[in-house]
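#help-structures

NK: newbie question. if I give both the sequence and a SMILES, will the prediction place the ligand too? trying with NAP
OV: yes, paste both and it writes out the complex. here, I ran yours:
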Amino acid sequence: MIETVRAVLSQAADYRRQVGRPYITLSYAQSLDGSIARRRGAPLAISGPMAQQFTHQLRALHDAILVGIGTVISDNPRLTVRLVTGPNPQVVIVDSQLRTPLSAQVLRAERGPWLATTAAADRGRAQALERSGARPVPLPALPNGWVDLGALLDWLGAADVNSLMVEGGSRIITSFLAQGSVNQVILTIAPLLVGGLRAVESPLATPTGHSLRLANLSVSPCGDDLIVRGELAGQG
Ligand SMILES: NC(=O)c1ccc[n+]([C@@H]2O[C@H](COP(=O)([O-])OP(=O)(O)OC[C@H]3O[C@@H](n4cnc5c(N)ncnc54)[C@H](OP(=O)(O)O)[C@@H]3O)[C@@H](O)[C@H]2O)c1
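OV: that's the protein plus ligand as structure tokens.
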């Protein structure tokens, strides 16, 4: 599986040059019933040790890794590749109001995180986060105040980010899928039933009303978990 991903990502620079945006991998861990947390803000250990290592290998193959501010506040992740040898990806946090805590572990990385934000963010807050090593990136807002992800992808493309791994949480997963910009999906599916926070929050459909279907599917056991990979016709 990792060799397939490596081969696909070796084309990411060409993809970014053609489309102007990074090649996007959506990757997260879910239970058999599609839960990614016990409830919003209550993290849950889902992947086994082998799948965790696989996830770190995936991270090392991408230029950048993205999560929403909900995940930073809930899980305080490091988003590094500490279980394998390889480069840490550039961290990107989607955070329209700059709620990233100054104590967040992502601020301790060697390269500070990029905070995709909007004009609604407080200027003093931006300066405090900059002093902690972060780089706020002001972008257009959607009508609900959230960051315009299309504008973010254009900005990342212009910053020479060839490949982007999107790890969650639920709102971010839903927004990326709804926007049609995901190129490949790589899920860890653990043998758990949780009845918790669903990975995808609202119905997704193509313009013809069909659900999104993965192509070129592969499935591999990974310890007690399954890794499922497939491609979506990303619209860039
Ligand atoms: N199992 C896994 O692999 C996995 C991975 C990651 C997270 N999780 C779980 O997911 C949960 C967090 O998910 P979540 O849905 O609460 O938060 P999230 O998806 O991490 O972040 C969502 C927040 O991002 C901001 N945002 C800005 N622009 C956005 C846009 N265009 N689309 C979507 N969000 C945008 C919004 O906050 P503002 O309005 O403040 O900007 C929004 O509430 C946690 O419980 C965590 O444990 C699980």
